[in-house]
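So, can you check this record?

>
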Amino acid sequence: MTAPSPLSLGVLVSGVGSNLQAILDAVGAGTLNAQVKVVIANRAGAPALDRARRADIRALTIPHTEFSSREAFDRALVSALREAEVNWVVLAGFMRVLTPEFLAAFAGRIINIHPSLLPAFPGVDAAKQALAYGVKLTGCTVHFVDRGVDSGKIIAQRAVPVETSDDLSSLSARIHAAEHELFVDVLREIAAGRVVPFEA
């Protein structure tokens, strides 16, 4: 029986890229059967691009502000991802809502990580929302991406207790640590064929 081919990943980022780093570390350690083919940021100077370059991975900036519409921006993303021959798209802190055209281009093969136990606290500032609401448990979710905001089919979740001493910084740090583990675990499941592309 032949070993499965490595995943060919395209990673979209907007900021620091700590989840990207977790993926790169797992690939580098040989614990994730994947290749990151390209990292694309929609913001010039995103620190995540430096992480990609240090790992000798193609790093591109495609600023969304330079396009007349969301559709035009997404077409540029699709073109770059197809050129890199990726078969899965990973949103690692990518702060844009994708258009139906993009979703169709990589149908069922786009995953995102969100810092809450969805469907609780979708959108921005999830950890802040959790603290304000007073929940005792939050966490993170990896899900397929659909036309909604953080509304796609859930693949996996990891719980993070909210401590009475928590502030936004301490809670966010523990959620981020859980995200790094969960994202890589889900990609391992995809690489092993135990999570398959989602068909709506």
